[in-house]
Amino acid sequence: MTVPLCYLFKLCLTFVFLALFQSHTASSAVVMSLKNHHSHPLHRRPMFKTNQSSCALFAGTWVRDDSYPLYQYSNCPIIDAEFNCQMYGRPDSDYLKYRWQPLNCQLPSFNGLVFLSRMRGKTVMFVGDSLGRNQWESLICMISAAAPQTPTQMIRGDPLSTFKFLEFGLSISFYRAPYLVDIDVVQGRRVLKLGDIDENGNAWRMADVLLFNTGHWWSHQGALQGWDLMESGGEYYQDMDRLVALGKGLRTWANWVDTNVDRTKSRVFFQSISPTHYNPSEWSGGATMTTTKNCYGETAPMTGTTYPGTYPDQMRVVNEVIREMHFPAYLLDITMLSELRKDGHPSIYSGDLSPAQRTHPDRSADCSHWCLPGLPDTWNELFYTVLFY
């Protein structure tokens, strides 16, 4: 029987391709993100493939790893007092020894020198609230640990602070905008402009990598509320359903991104809602308000791969808005993996608390922010993976 030459040629090409592919995957873990992962109407976690097995990057479990933490607080002086738990007396250290293990794959090791080299001459900007500042400081510490002798410069301001790695021309900035949209002062009253973002957005326009977050401030009330009135479509409101307000604000942000960011030059990420741990009934069925009231005294993460509490309603709004974008931001979905870390908060070991406040953990414990070193380092390991792999 005669075999056509075209058939033999195709067969040879197939074997060559398979040989090259197997050689590549044998030498290193190949991590690929599936693009357009927000196109499905349901919340789909981005999938990664490693050595021919699929992995949900944001689904997994916490495993103990004594090679952690990735840096020491004493070697990173830029850590703000409110995040510097070891400096302010936290007695335990096991919370520093956990690594995020996704399903069926390994995260690539964070390499600060690779980050500096790949991002030479670039600007990375975190935009949002103090959780964004938490992550910004973490990333600076992680990179600095790999290049402790490289000259740097910190320029602190409000709303913009910038840390520069001078030899590499890399700027890593934090822009404080807890609602993302603008706040104007009108006749002495703070007006949250749900439809306006240009004043803030002008500062973000030229960044090469943008990582946004918002969430916590939308639910604040009383003395913690950051506005006196809301304005939408020319109408002023004393208040409105906070999820509705969040949706309006996020759609303004999404329209700004779609209109102003050149996707051939810039990358855009959105960090999902960072959870709090003020309600012990969410992680301990036997807890009562008389035995424990928050994260104080928690020293280990929850076990398992799922969280027994309620997934934040704000995430439904975030998912809807990102799905509607013409060029969806990449959702760094850290919510569920962070829910498991009831042990990672400053609690009373925050430099922002007075000695008297520390004696009343039931009233003063910070179960919203995160210790550094700590959980935000994992957020940045995931950020690093998605950015470079």
Written description of the protein model:
28% of the residues lie in helices and 18% in strands. It has ten helices and 16 strands. It has a seven-stranded mixed β-sheet, with helices on one face. A four-stranded mixed β-sheet has the order 10-11-13-14, with no helix packed on it. Strands 1-2-3 form a three-stranded antiparallel β-sheet, with no helix packed on it. Strand 7 and strand 8 form a beta hairpin. The termini are far apart. Mean pLDDT is 87; it is low at 1-53.
Estimate the strand proportion. 15-25%
Residue windows where pLDDT falls under 50 for at least 5 positions: 1-53
The H-and-E topology, N to C, reads as HEEEEEHEHEEEEEHEEEHEHEHHHH
Terminus-to-terminus distance: 47 Å
Helix share, percent: 25-40%
The tally of strands reads: 16
Query: Main sheet?
Result: 7 strands, mixed
Short overview:
The chain has 389 residues and is α/β, with parallel strands linked by helices. The protein has helices at 5-27, 112-118, 130-146, 198-201, 242-260, 313-324, 335-339, 355-358, 361-364, 375-388; strands spanning 32-33, 47-50, 53-56, 60-64, 98-102, 123-128, 152-155, 160-165, 170-176, 183-186, 189-193, 209-212, 229-232, 235-237, 267-271, 330-332.
Give descriptors for this structure.
alpha/beta, 389 residues, disordered N terminus, 16 strands, 10 helices, 4-stranded mixed β-sheet, 18% strand
